[in-house]
Amino acid sequence: MSATCDVTGAGPRYGNNVPWSHRKTRRRWNVNLQRKRYFLPSEGRYVTLRVSAKGIKTIDRRGIESVVARLRKQGKKI
C-alpha cells in the first residue's frame, strides 16, 4: 500500500540531508497519515480512509458526504 492520502493525494517528498560538512545524502519526508473511520449517514455504514492531517481538516470543513462524492467522481472505490 502506498503512503498517499486518500483525500488530498499527498505523498512522500524527497530531498537531501545537509549536515555542517555539506555531504549530502538522500532522505524522505513522509506524510502524516492516519487511519480514520467515518460514518456515512446516507448509506448507513462506516468507511475507513487513510488521510493526512490536512485531509482530516478538509473533511471537517467540507463534510464527509461531499468528500466521498468527489472521490467517487474521480473513480476511487470506497
TrEMBL record:
Belongs to the bacterial ribosomal protein bL28 family. HAMAP family: Ribosomal_bL28. GO terms for cellular component: ribosome. It comes from the Bacteria. InterPro entries: Ribosomal_bL28 (IPR026569), Ribosomal_bL28/bL31-like_sf (IPR034704), Ribosomal_bL28_bact-type (IPR001383), Ribosomal_bL28_sf (IPR037147). It comes from Salininema proteolyticum. The keyword Ribonucleoprotein applies. This is Large ribosomal subunit protein bL28. Keywords: Ribonucleoprotein, Ribosomal protein. The keyword Calcium does not apply. NCBIfam families: L28.
